[in-house]
Design a protein that fits this description.
The complex is a heterodimer of chains A (about 450) and B (about 280). Chain A has about 450 residues and is mainly α. Chain A is built from 23 helices and no strands. Chain B is elongated and about 85 Å long. At the A-B interface, helix 1, helix 2, helix 3, helix 4 and helix 5 of A face helix 1, helix 3, helix 4, helix 5 and helix 6 of B.
Chain lengths: ~450, ~280
């Protein structure tokens, strides 16, 4: 007892307030969480046993087999950029579907959706397609707002379509099946892509000048464009079939997927220095995520002593309002938080308290994970600070930020509608994992 | 890759020579540790593939034994059996080796400002107020990481003296546990350097920043993402072939060498960004 408080609940409230204050003041999340966790546990059970307990958490909580899938998925993402898949995907997509109204923009949506399967990173996907797809769209006289908007929005598909590192993290925090979450993201990802495509086509119908279709490809050309997209199908097939049939653990499936992408990247002439850089970046992102995980888990251990999650849960269930209102309030909170914080940090920070309360309201755990992750993605394209828009503007400085934000608007509205649809029809999320895993 | 120290030796102001020297020394160790973590991830990939191969070849042998027992026996395929079994203790080994990439890169990531935080408020602060808040935050980090080094070491010593091992394969656990105090020790050193760097700036807010990570605006952050995606080599971005190409307008600066490439490791823009991270 350093501060002399005796009531665990009071200690808990002070701890949560202190952590929020530190985070708002710019203390890195791992330090704010582990410091409050450490001092809180010490206050409750004393310095010797408290500090000794906290000292074991980083190792014991990080060194668990389920978490080993994370570096594999991250590695797939970093290697995929060097495997020449983006150009091949865009090329195939426009040959197959360029003929629809707004064809190149629709092709961009499907190419980003495909690339999403190997890259879990929204911003990186937006950056790559800004370079691959925008020049082509401008060449065909596409409105540059549309061209920039579709690329920024397309990037957000990356976190839903499997394999996705952020869904693995959600699964681990709330102790759900990793396989279920990965599968659950698939249909919402595809639905989002279809809604994007629908919006483009409707607008292109009204104003064909701004988004002309591209046709005249022979079937021969179309089929010739397919082999370049092979790594995508390989990775998706490996991971989904491993989850479904159980012939490999997610880590092993991720390892095989990374290996396939590596071989193709090397075949396409990736240099050793580039490989080294990709590995260093993978290690950096991996340690960032692991630090967050054990940091938050120290805080969670403290929360466990205080009974706060139960209290919040009781508070939420006692509110005299329909669950849907509470859900919408919480989602609004995420929308605001997501503007200032990275999606992974936001999830880790809030879920230990929010998740049990949502479960008490009767919501499905898998379903809530997908909704929250989708919400975090919408934040990436929310004017005026959506990071994806800045990324597109960074790659294409000739397209002003104001144009990117105007271009993103229809997709932003579409995403809000998508979230509404996913709330109204939860089966869109839960059906696939229930079908495949049971 | 050269260590991305905050400043090169030539730019170092006279009052911070020693700090800068330690900065580069620790940066060297950090790069090495992160490289070890990176190679461990690379190794984990090969190990996973090997594990699948071995398990599947074991299944194949069983299948052959059941379908064509005569050929199986006459070719003495059973002799291959020991080589066609999954690695025993694979999961134990993976778990213990995870300590490499879970911890070793922590200081490296700290130097590059890679650990998540919220910059909503700190982003609007300037001058002494900013440096003071940064310094305070770093001191808090220094305290908690220090405690974790101390008790992480205890955790290791217990495993070492008791001879703890994993349940299945009975691998000793102490080498894995030792990585926590080692990695966090370097992290502590990095934080100490940053705390000194921030304290120095709190006293003299106009001084050239040394040994502190610089904060980035949203657009500078976007540039980082772009660089992460393309690497310094960049990706090939040929425009799709085989399509009619009416008027080549609006395509400025999007050739294979995009406008954002060829910058030196982001150091120059970090400095011109001028705001601490």
């Amino acid at each position: 007892m350093i501060f002399g408080f005796t009531d665990e609940f009071t200690i808990g409230m002070i701890g949560v307030t202190a952590m929020i204050t530190m985070i708002v003041l710019g203390v890195r999340v791992v330090f704010a969480a582990s410091l409050v966790g450490l001092l809180g546990v010490v206050e409750i059970i004393g310095w010797q046993s408290g500090a000794a307990l906290v000292g074991t958490i980083p190792h014991s909580k990080s060194v668990t087999y389920v978490l080993s899938v994370l570096p594999m998925f991250i590695l797939i993402g970093f290697l995929a950029f060097h495997a020449g898949i983006t150009q091949a995907l865009f090329d195939a997509a426009r040959k197959w579907i360029g003929w629809v109204p707004g064809g190149l923009a629709v092709a961009t949506v499907f190419a980003t959706a495909g690339f999403a399967a190997v890259s879990g990173a929204s911003t990186a996907t937006a950056a790559v397609f800004a370079r691959v797809a925008i020049p082509d769209m401008l060449k065909y006289g596409y409105n540059r707002r549309l061209a920039a908007g579709v690329v920024a929005a397309g990037g957000t598909l990356a976190t839903l379509i499997p394999p996705s590192a952020i869904l693995v993290i959600y699964a681990i925090i709330v102790e759900e099946s990793v396989g279920r979450l990965l599968l659950a993201g698939f249909i919402p990802g595809v639905v989002s892509a279809l809604i994007y495509a629908g919006i483009i086509m409707v607008n292109a119908k009204r104003d064909p000048e701004s988004a002309p279709s591209v046709s005249g490809f022979t079937w021969r050309e179309r089929f010739a464009s397919l082999p370049g997209t092979f790594p995508i199908f390989a990775v998706v097939l490996i991971i989904i079939s491993a989850i479904y049939n159980g012939w490999a653990t997610p880590t092993e499936a991720g390892a095989l997927g990374a290996f396939v992408v590596l071989v193709i990247a090397l075949f396409r002439g990736m240099k050793m220095s580039t490989l080294r850089e990709a590995l260093m970046e993978t290690a950096k992102l991996t340690v960032m995520i692991f630090s967050l995980i054990w940091g938050i888990l120290i805080f969670v251990r403290f929360l466990g002593y205080t009974g706060l999650p139960t209290a919040f849960q009781e508070f939420v269930t006692s509110i005299d309002a329909p669950p849907i209102v509470i859900l919408l309030c919480i989602l609004l909170g995420y929308a605001i938080l997501g503007m200032f914080m990275d999606a992974i940090g936001m999830l880790l920070l809030t879920l230990p308290v929010v998740h049990p309360a949502m479960m008490a309201l009767g919501y499905d755990s898998i379903w809530f994970g997908i909704i929250v992750v989708k919400m975090a993605e919408v934040c990436l394209i929310t004017p005026p600070i959506g990071l994806n828009c800045f990324v597109v503007n960074g790659v294409r400085p000739d397209i002003p930020l104001s144009d990117v934000f105007r271009g993103i608007l229809p997709f932003f509205i579409a995403d809000v509608i998508t979230i509404g649809v996913l709330i109204a029809f939860p089966a869109l999320i839960t059906w696939l994992p229930n079908q495949l895993i049971g | 890759m050269t260590p991305e120290a905050t400043l090169g030796p030539a730019d170092t102001p006279a009052d911070a020579r020693t700090l800068s020297r330690f900065d580069r020394l620790v940066a060297y160790v950090e790069d090495l540790l992160n490289l070890i973590a990176a190679l461990a991830i690379f190794g984990l990939m090969f190990l996973g593939v090997l594990q699948i191969l071995l398990r599947k070849s074991g299944d194949l042998l069983t299948y052959l034994q059941q379908t064509i027992p005569s050929a199986y026996d006459s070719l003495a395929l059973e002799a291959l059996r020991p080589f066609a079994a999954p690695i025993t203790g694979y999961i134990d080994f993976v778990e213990l080796s995870m300590a490499t990439f879970a911890f070793l890169g922590a200081a490296y990531t700290q130097r590059l400002g890679g650990h998540i935080r919220m910059e909503m408020l700190i982003g609007v602060l300037r001058g002494r107020a900013l440096w003071a808040v940064e310094c305070l935050g770093t001191l808090l980090a220094l305290f908690v990481v220090g405690v974790l080094v101390w008790y992480g070491w205890d955790h290791f010593m217990r495993a070492y003296t008791n001879g703890d091992s994993t349940i299945d394969a009975e691998y000793p656990t102490w080498p894995s546990k030792l990585l926590v105090p080692v990695a966090f020790g370097v992290w502590w050193l990095r934080l100490a350097l940053q705390a000194i760097g921030f304290a120095r700036l709190t006293i003299a807010p106009k001084a050239v920043p040394v040994a502190v990570p610089l904060m980035k605006s949203v657009s500078a952050q976007a540039d980082d993402e772009i660089r992460d995606a393309f690497g310094s080599q960049g990706v090939r971005a040929e425009v799709g072939e085989g399509a009619p190409q009416p008027g080549a307008d609006g395509d400025a600066g999007s050739g294979p060498e995009g406008p954002r490439e060829g910058r030196p490791d982001g150091q120059s823009d970090e400095r011109s960004g001028g705001r601490p991270r």
